[in-house]
Design goal:
Mean pLDDT: 79
Distance between the termini: 101 Å
Largest sheet: none
Radius of gyration: 43 Å
Low-confidence stretches: none
Shape: elongated
Order of helices and strands: HHHH
Amino acid sequence: MSYPSQPSSGEPPLPPQGQSTPQQPWAPPAPGWAYAPAQQQPQFPAAHHAAPQYPLPAQHFAPQGQAQPYGVPVRMALPMPYKDSTAAWLLWVFLGAFGAHHFYLGRTQWGVAYAIGFVVSWLLAIAIIGFLGLIALFILWIIDATKMSERLQQYNAHAFAVNRSMGLA
């Protein structure tokens, strides 16, 4: 197999007969070489039926105004409620052993401790040791009676402060 002589005019050399030159994607084709003809796009027959038109769902947008930045909570619409002293005292009298008055005043951890302590004390009362727990709960129940008015005042003062900070008081 013989190679053609190199042209001196700066043209790229021609490949040997029967072989093709690899084209680099960024280089223009060599003179005398052409790209493959462009393929035609397939023609599809027209549809027999029109595409169904479904109604768009209702769009709910935020009111027009200054948008809240991401991560900023939306202002609460309802004020923090105040607690009634009569309800707190009734819960203390009738359900105080279960800590209902603590739940009412937002002291959930104390309410859970009272409820668990009461149930465990009654379960251990079979072994007589549970009566010590019931005595401790009775003492805490009396202490709660002495502090009930103070805790109601603290809760309602906090509720007022929160409501005022939201512009609702």
